[in-house]
Amino acid sequence: MAGGWWLVAGGWWLVAGGWWLVAGGWWLVxGGWWLVAxGWWLVAGGWWLVAGGWxxx
Length: 57
Fold this sequence. Notes:
Structural class: mainly alpha
Largest sheet: none
Distance between the termini: 83 Å
Number of helices: 1
């Protein structure tokens, strides 16, 4: 009967692993949005730098 218990335990670990995979996927999506947002801020900062350079000269 010990084999049956190991099978049940393995099944639970499989389910837990699946949940972590889903959670990781959501974090990847959120991280991707932050990356895009940061990229836009970087571009905006670059434009301000260019504009500042023009006004300086």
